[in-house]
Amino acid sequence: MSKKGRILVAMSGGIDSTVAAVMLAEEGYEVIGVTMKTWDYANSGGGKKETGCCSLDSINDARSIAVQHGIHHLILDIRDEFGDFVIDNFVEEYLAGRTPNPCVLCNTHIKWEALLKRANQLDCEFIATGHYARIREENNRFVISKGLDAHKDQSYVLWGLSQASMARTRFPLGGFHKSDIKQMAIDRGFIELAKKSESYEICFVPDNDYRGFLKRKVAGLEERVDGGLFVNSKGVVLGKHRGYPFYTVGQRKGLEIALGEPMFVLEIKPETNTVVLGKEEELQRKGMWVRNVNLQKYAQLNKPMEALTKVRYKDAGTFSVIEQVDQQMKVNFYSHVKGIAPGQSAVFYEDNDVIGGGWIQSSFDI
């Protein structure tokens, strides 16, 4: 056993997880690398070459790098758990008229559980990933904070982690900029890895065509929902659409309807196969309800508090007052927010710290 103990590191074959693993080994940890196979791309029916974190190339890259550095490497097949939970939820959310956030769901319920289970089996005290986020203990609670690199910060996708999970998690890259990590890779001879492009696609929809994916997963879906109506906010029929699951709140492109001015999806009504369109200003909302809230920094909010609230990953955030009502959070924004999509994650921040987060249930105007 090394002087710092044994740590299980998720290695995807990309630059971030590779540098994280090597950094920890250099710090004196006994590193065990694990690459998780979450999805078999051949089953998706897509037309593109297999890419991303679950591809054979990525798995081979991770294994090769681990071997080079004397890191014991394992491949963990979690396709069954992933498919049953994440992909089924992805399909169900679209069929319910919502816009799912599969990466958050996967982190919370699949990857961390799989890592901790295997860590226990291998006598690893900690697990680590290449996320750009930081974690610390304060007032007997573990808190996730934004990564130092504001452009790469991934705290938004980690709101669902429990206190027990965070207690055993390390984020080696949280205090660095992406440029630092690239230089570290170059300095250690990972020249090709530093040039490797990053994938922002959903791993099981690698061609980014989620509509095609839904058609392949749900038999007869296209025929079942085709011919629904576009209406405006007053209920006036504007035309026909291809089916409500193929649209998301805030969408402007790909509507395939010409109305003489830009129109956006305001609301999706699955029970009537209706998609409500309107002008950009009609997307503005002053508040929302958030369900299935997971608090990190505080065990409970006993009174309303000010927070910066993000409604999507690349959202800069809007200051708001949040109020815990049972297991929901009521959010009142100080200024209007555009395109609040039910099903997406809402994450609440106090300075750089994650207060908590949840799934957007609905929005409202005051």
Write the layout of secondary structure elements.
Elements: E1 6-10, H1 15-27, E2 30-37, H2 56-68, E3 72-77, H3 79-95, H4 102-121, E4 126-128, E5 133-138, E6 141-146, H5 163-167, E7 169-170, H6 178-187, H7 191-195, H8 210-217, H9 221-225, E8 229-232, E9 237-240, E10 264-269, E11 274-278, E12 284-295, E13 305-310, E14 318-325, E15 328-338, E16 345-350, E17 353-364
Parallel strand pairs: 1-2, 1-4, 2-3, 4-7, 8-11
Antiparallel strand pairs: 5-6, 8-9, 10-11, 12-15, 12-17, 13-14, 13-16, 14-15, 16-17
Helix pairs in contact: 1-6, 3-4
Report on the structure:
- Helices cover 26% and strands 30% of the residues.
- The protein has helices at residues 15-27, 56-68, 79-95, 102-121, 163-167, 178-187, 191-195, 210-217, 221-225; strands spanning 6-10, 30-37, 72-77, 126-128, 133-138, 141-146, 169-170, 229-232, 237-240, 264-269, 274-278, 284-295, 305-310, 318-325, 328-338, 345-350, 353-364.
- It has 366 residues and is an alpha/beta fold.
- It is globular and about 70 Å long.
- Helix 3 (79-95) packs antiparallel against helix 4.
- It folds into 3 domains: 6-130 and 172-195, Rossmann fold; 221-274, no CATH class; 282-364, Elongation Factor Tu (Ef-tu), domain 3 (Beta Barrel).
- The termini are far apart.
- It is built from 9 helices and 17 strands.
- The strands form 4 sheets. Strands 12-15-14-13-16-17 form a 6-stranded antiparallel beta barrel.
